[in-house]
Amino acid sequence: MEISKSKEEVQEQPSTPTALAPSTKQTSAHKDAGLNGRLLFAIAAAALGSSFQHGYNTGVVNAPQSLIEAWIQDVKGNRTGEIISKNQVTAIWSVAVSIFCVGGMIGGALVGTIADRFGRKGGLLLINVLVVMTVLLEGFSKMASSYEMLIIGRFIIGINSGLNAGLAPMYLAEISPMHLRGAVGTVYQLVITISILIAQILGMNQLLGTEQHWPLLLSLTIVPAIFQCLTLPLCPESPKYLLLCRGKDADAQKALTWLRSSNDVYEEMEEMRNEYESMKMLPTVGLRDLFVNSTLRIPLVIAVMVMLAQQLSGINAVMFFSTKIFTMASLDDHAAQSATMGVGAMNVIMTLVSLVLVEKCGRKTLLLLGFGGMVIDTALLTICITYASASTAAAYLSIIFVILFVVFFAIGPGSIPWFLVSELFNQSARPAATSISIAINWSANFVVGIAFLPLQEVMGSKVFIIFVIIQAVFTLFIWRKVPETKNKTIEEISSMFRQRSYQ
Question: Which of the pair, 231 or 393, is modelled with greater confidence?
Answer without folding.
Answer: 231
